[in-house]
Structures are given as structure tokens and as C-alpha cells.
């Protein structure tokens, strides 16, 4: 009695357990998690700030232009008022948003490159390379970041945005590298990575194809945290007078408002917008980071779903208890 190939396939499909990969040995595609309210709100706020930073400077006046009207409250001519020298605060906000986002983007990219190189590549290479990279990361971790940034910035008189971003990136990549190193060490010992190495795959291909895709959510989370650190760090430096010279950022706006006695004069429109922008943008990035954490850790995603179901159940119970028609029914 002969057995056809279709019967073999049917038998394999019947005997295969639920959730097993297809008979051909291909990997099962994991569906992407649905958009959560935190992710939607966070991304919406981030996109709004990015659009304001990109398009705002194209439609406002020169932020350094001095006017004889002096300090004025918000009005139809100046939506966010003016400073003591008559400079338009809305124009400064537009340029400051672009400057702060530029610093955050540069620090995020540099932190990603440095942490991935010293963390992922070092952990995969192992041996003396891993030990040397780990030693450098540990040294950078024990060096206090903010005092080092203050010392470096104090020795340079004319500081550009690029220089400030470079200093912040150099002092902020080590923590991310340590996290990536630990995760890479765990991924390096998995079966599919060992199988690829035994099959004779080149090291760079194993690293790019087999390891890096598992690190993408973690890398994204590290970049988000680096951007938050960069914006807050630049604001702190600028408030101390050590920020970028000749450029507008949220931190320099707060510095000029402090020197102009805006708080004492009651000029809230001068210092509230940049401070509020830092708080709102940081909160939006935190929401995005929480959503990425849920993607990385399925337990958090399951816990969030359970809490959401619990809230809905309690809401329905409260609605039934307060609705007389439901009680009568």
C-alpha cells in the first residue's frame, strides 16, 4: 500500500501540537502588540512637539530681534508676550524647541551607537574584548556625570549645540551598555544562535540577524531614556549658565528668564512655557517608554490587560448599582 505525500502532510498537521511551528521548520511570526492608550497619547504629544520645532521657526519672527515695547503680557500681536527687551517669547519657544529636540536626537543616536558597540558587540565577542569593554563601561559609570559635564563645559567658552550634545552622550552611554551587555549574554547562549554559529554563519551575520532583532525593543527604550536625560541635562547646564552659547533651547530660555527677574516681575509667560514644555515632553516620552516596557515584558502587558478588565468590570457593576431600570429588571 502506497502513501501519498498529501496524506503525510495531513497526518503531520493532525499530530502536530497546538502552537508548534509549521512543518517546514520556518519561524512563526509573532503578531505585534496592539496600540495602547499610553503609546498613542505619548506619540501624539511627541509628534506635535517635533512639528512645532520643525515648522515653527519658519513662520515666526527673529527671536533675537529687540523691540522698544519692552516687557508685555500675551496679546494678539504677541501670543506669548515679550521679554524685557521686547523679544517675542513665541519665537524664542519655536527656536528653543528645535534646539532642545536637536540635542535630544543627537544624544539619543550617539548613546545608541556607543552603548550598542560596547555592550552588544563586546558581549558577543567575549574574551579580552568583552573584559576591556566592560572595564571601560564600569569606569564611565563611577565617574559622576553632572560634575564632569560642568568641568568640561566651564573650560570651553563658545559652546555649540553639537558640543553640548557630545558631552552629554559621552557621560551617559555606560548605563545602557551594561544593560545591553547582560541581555546579549543571555541571548548569545540560545539554541538558534548556537545553531547559526555551528552552521558556519559569519559572526557579523549572526549578530545582525539572530541577536539584534531581539534587542530592538530594549534599544528603543534606551534611546527614549537617553533623549529624556539629554533634554533635562541640557536644561540644567543652561540654567547654570553652562549651556550652548548663541542658541535657543528650553534651558537657555529659563536662564534668560532667571537673569531677567521674570519670576519677581510676575512675567509668567516668559518662564512657564519652556518649563511646561520640558515637563510635558518628558511625560510623553515616559509614556512611550512604559509602552515599550510592556512590549519587552509580556507579563506587564498581561497585567495591564487584567487591570483594564478589572476597571471595566467595576464600572459595569457601579453602573448596574446606580441604574434603577437595571435593578428593576
Q: Would you kindly provide a written description of the structure presented here, covering whatever features stand out?
A:
This protein is mainly alpha-helical and 329 residues long. The chain has 14 helices and no strands. The longest helix is centred in the first third of the chain and has 37 residues, at 89-125. The protein starts with a helix and ends with a helix. The model is unreliable at 1-31 (pLDDT under 50).
Please mark out the parts with pLDDT under 50 across 5 or more consecutive residues, or reply none. Answer: 1-31
Largest sheet, if any? none
Mean residue pLDDT:
78
Work out the helix count.
Answer: 14
Element-by-element helix/strand order? HHHHHHHHHHHHHH
The end-to-end distance, rounded to whole angstroms, is 67 Å
Shape: elongated
Radius of gyration: 27 Å
Output the structural class.
mainly alpha
Number of strands: 0
Proportion of β residues? Answer: under 5%
Topology:
Blueprint: H1 5-15, H2 37-59, H3 89-125, H4 127-142, H5 145-155, H6 161-170, H7 174-188, H8 191-198, H9 203-239, H10 250-259, H11 262-265, H12 268-296, H13 298-322, H14 324-328
Concise summary:
The chain has about 325 residues and is mainly α. Helix content is about 75%, strand content about 0%.
Defining key terms:
single chain; 329 residues; mainly alpha; 73% helix; elongated; disordered N terminus
